[in-house]
Structures
1.
Amino acid sequence: MSGLALWLLVALPAALGAALCLAGPRGDRVAAPAALGGAAAVAALGVATAISRPHVQAPFLAGEPFSLGRSYEPVLGRLMW
């Protein structure tokens, strides 16, 4: 499994929440089933991601990357004086 799974762990709940918000009052009827389906999908994706242990990295601030799936020790080592 690639780093796409890590991005989906963030994007899937956000997209589901945005879709329910944009649906307005019509989304009330499907909110509970959509939430349960989304939670099940995220849980399954989380298990698959934990097994495969992928890594992704993107620029966050100038000179400091935002990283998912790695230890924070290299960053903390640079911050210590």
2.
Amino acid sequence: MNEITPLGWIAISIGGLILISTNLSLLTLLTRRQSRKQSDPKPLGKLIQTFKNPWEPEDRQWQELSRQVKELQRRDWLKDKNATTEQND
């Protein structure tokens, strides 16, 4: 039976390290993928929603601005109305 030379042992060790590191990296990617799926269940659904209504975030901001403007106008109208009634009294 032939003995394995030190260079052979080095080659076997490097091959084993490559095999182990490949398996560990695949396991790590698999666990990350599963945790990401739990936190964001429908990334494709979000993409489809973006295609259906691409300006939805901006629309929400415009609606909020519109609501705030209406509220300010209402306050100004009430303030003017109260000032008018006070002058008439």
